[in-house]
Description:
- This protein has 8 helices and 14 strands.
- The chain is α/β, with parallel strands linked by helices.
- The strands form 3 sheets. The protein has a 7-stranded mixed sheet with strand order 10-9-8-11-12-13-14. The chain has a 5-stranded parallel sheet with strand order 1-4-5-6-7, sandwiched between helices. It has a two-stranded antiparallel ribbon with strand order 2-3.
- Strand 12, helix 7 and strand 13 form a beta-alpha-beta unit.
- Helix 1 crosses helix 8 and helix 4 packs across helix 5.
- The longest helix is centred in the N-terminal third of the chain and has 17 residues.
- It catalyses: D-ribose 5-phosphate + ATP = 5-phospho-alpha-D-ribose 1-diphosphate + AMP + H(+).
- Its main location: cytoplasm.
Amino acid sequence: MSECQHQLxxxxxxxxxxxxxxxxxxxxxxxxxxxxSRFSDGEIQINIEESIRGDDVFVIQSTxxxxxxxxxxxxIMIDALKRASARTINIVMPxxxxxxxxxxxxxxxxxxxxxxxxxxxxxxxxxxxxLDLHAPQIQGFFDIPIDHLMGVPxxxxxxxxxxxxxxxxxxPDHGGVTRARKLADRLxxxxxxxxxxxxxxxxxxxxxxxxxxxxxxxxLIDDIIDTAGTITLGAxxxxxxxxxxxxxxxxxxxxxxxxxxxxxNSKIKELVVTNSIALPEEKKIDKIVELSVAPLIAEAxxxxxxxxxxxxxxx
Length: 315
């Protein structure tokens, strides 16, 4: 009787096929064969077109717009893999949707980040690999292993290559200070913080800038840029306070609603993002620079499959 070999199989759903192909190419393997179709009423049908019995399966799917469609695709895929006797089902979520509701800020609010964790586990996921969670404590919502990768090293390497002079790293709010400090440490630059308040929902007022920005090249960093209100207002405030020029960066370019128009008309010289979320052509303006997370994710998948340490990727 031959010894059983647990093969690595890599599948991709519809959220970010370009990134999935880059990851497969980096790893030197082919994407697994599966099809996603719709019944006439819109229900999702998934067919896995090759045997995965006893294999270690990795599924690449960001839960980006349309969020509910992509989340449902993923849950159905996990169920299909479980019923097809996959040995392990490893979910690779470059962007974890619903992460911004990670606690009860007001009475009678849901905690959707926890709900999504429950859904993935109940469907049958064995492990999650994700990138820059909106709140690191979301890792604790899972009772399965979760590998939390960071986008800061990729962003830092890009800015190092630009050899900018007299840099200051700026957090757009108090909540992002830890992230901003990581970038500041890598670029050996000082830190500044924008003190803001929200007088009403979706309205932001900059109250004060803590730190020295006059005459400096400012780099704003956030994990998610959605409507771009905070980041563009912050950039304008930095210029008004004497910053020489302003760059901005984030891991997840949600860029919904008026975001592209706001960025185009803002004081931001360049917005650096990763491809954790697929950018449609109409959002690829000259100001936006896209960096690939494919090498990082490919290395993480390989290390998980080979039972090696993933923590070295955080250095």
